[in-house]
Each structure stands twice: as structure tokens, then as C-alpha cells.
């Protein structure tokens, strides 16, 4: 496993260029044995140079101040075998999460090639404060139940993968799904009025 972290820096640039994060939002990490590397807090995402090293057990960190969501990344590594985690603020997915329930997301995932082969299971969590331990634990529970993508209402998407690009692909596949579904139905329809195949 490459533990240098260059791919995390590249992933953050791609997320910003695609409009899936704003310049100071989102984060990505890479597991390296008993530690993980994570993008820092407060640094413009297209200009990241240094990463933070966090101890998975003690959560002590070295380097620049880590993303406020470092506990969420730790919860995912502690509950799964994923090697990388990517978190973005996908606008259309966030919009869809206000009207679609978890089972509806999973039904949609199975209907499109882009998502069917990329995503195993989507979890949805309610609005919980960003950066809180409560959110980290709620997301960790969804991952422990088999989700590889979790949508946080009013916030964004977090995905686990074999490497940074696998996790990025899941984040992008979710936004693809939301774009297709928004084009097909719009998000202004009431849930019970959405027609499925
Ligand atoms: Zn966020």
C-alpha cells in the first residue's frame, strides 16, 4: 500500500474541480497500518501539500490540524477493511436525501450501471452536527452494517474504498445517480409521487 498520500492530494483537487466540494470543505484519508493520513483543516483543497498522520487507536495526531471529521474516518477504519475514505458535499445527492429514504437510494443504485458495479449499499443518516462524535458514531454504525457509502442529510456523502480513487468513484457515482434521478423526476416531487419502474 502506498502510504505517501499523493493520491489524496489529487483526489481533493478533482473533487473541487467537479464542484463536489467548496474550496474549504471535504476531506480524504488513507489507512497506513496503525495510522491513517488525512487532509488538513483550513487549507484550500486545491493547494494541500502536507497531510496529517493520526493514530487509529489513540487519535493523537502529528502534522497540520486534521479535518474536523477525522473521528468519522477513524470510525470507518475501525468498522471495515477499507483502505481509503473520501468525503464530499455532493449538492444533488444532498438535495435528493431530503426527499428519498435509504431503501429508495438502494433501489436506484441497482438500476444504473454506473452505481450497480461501484456501490454495494447506501446508508442514510439524519442531520447531525458536522465534526461531532455523534455523527462519527452514526456513520460508523452504517458502515459496520455493510454500507460502503453513507449520505448525511443536509451535509454530504462519505465513501470507503480499496484506495483513494475507488472511494472517489463511489462519491462520483452517487452524484451521477442523483443527477439522473433529478433529471428524471426532479426533487420537488413528494416521495409518494415518485414513480418507479
Ligand atoms: Zn463535510
TrEMBL record:
<dbReference type="GO" id="GO:0019323">
    <property type="term" value="P:pentose catabolic process"/>
</dbReference>
<keyword id="KW-0479">Metal-binding</keyword>
<feature type="domain" description="Class II aldolase/adducin N-terminal">
    <location>
        <begin position="6"/>
        <end position="182"/>
    </location>
</feature>
<dbReference type="InterPro" id="IPR050197">
    <property type="entry name" value="Aldolase_class_II_sugar_metab"/>
</dbReference>
<dbReference type="InterPro" id="IPR001303">
    <property type="entry name" value="Aldolase_II/adducin_N"/>
</dbReference>
<dbReference type="GO" id="GO:0046872">
    <property type="term" value="F:metal ion binding"/>
</dbReference>
<dbReference type="GO" id="GO:0016832">
    <property type="term" value="F:aldehyde-lyase activity"/>
</dbReference>
<dbReference type="GO" id="GO:0005829">
    <property type="term" value="C:cytosol"/>
</dbReference>
<dbReference type="Pfam" id="PF00596">
    <property type="entry name" value="Aldolase_II"/>
</dbReference>
<protein>
    <submittedName>
        <fullName>Aldolase</fullName>
    </submittedName>
</protein>
<keyword id="KW-0456">Lyase</keyword>
<dbReference type="InterPro" id="IPR036409">
    <property type="entry name" value="Aldolase_II/adducin_N_sf"/>
</dbReference>
Amino acid at each position: 500500500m502506498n502510504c505517501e498520500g499523493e493520491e489524496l492530494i489529487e483526489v481533493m483537487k478533482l473533487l473541487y474541480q467537479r464542484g463536489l466540494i467548496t474550496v474549504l470543505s471535504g476531506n480524504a484519508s488513507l489507512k497506513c497500518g496503525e495510522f491513517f493520513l488525512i487532509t488538513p483543516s483550513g487549507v484550500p483543497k486545491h493547494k494541500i501539500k502536507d497531510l496529517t498522520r493520526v493514530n487509529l487507536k489513540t487519535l493523537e495526531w502529528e502534522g497540520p490540524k486534521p479535518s474536523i471529521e477525522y473521528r468519522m474516518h477513524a470510525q470507518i477504519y475501525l468498522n471495515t477493511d477499507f483502505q481509503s475514505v473520501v468525503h464530499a458535499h455532493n449538492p444533488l445527492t444532498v438535495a435528493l436525501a431530503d426527499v428519498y429514504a435509504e431503501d429508495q437510494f438502494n433501489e436506484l443504485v441497482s438500476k444504473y450501471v454506473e452505481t450497480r458495479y461501484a456501490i454495494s449499499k447506501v446508508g442514510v443518516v439524519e442531520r447531525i452536527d458536522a465534526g461531532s462524535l455523534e455523527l462519527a458514531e452514526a456513520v460508523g454504525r452504517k458502515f459496520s452494517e455493510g454500507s460502503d457509502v453513507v449520505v448525511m442529510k443536509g451535509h454530504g456523502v462519505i465513501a470507503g474504498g480499496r484506495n483513494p480513487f475507488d472511494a472517489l468513484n463511489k462519491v462520483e457515482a452517487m452524484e451521477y445517480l442523483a443527477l439522473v434521478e433529478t433529471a428524471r423526476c426532479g426533487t420537488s416531487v413528494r416521495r409518494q409521487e415518485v414513480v418507479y419502474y
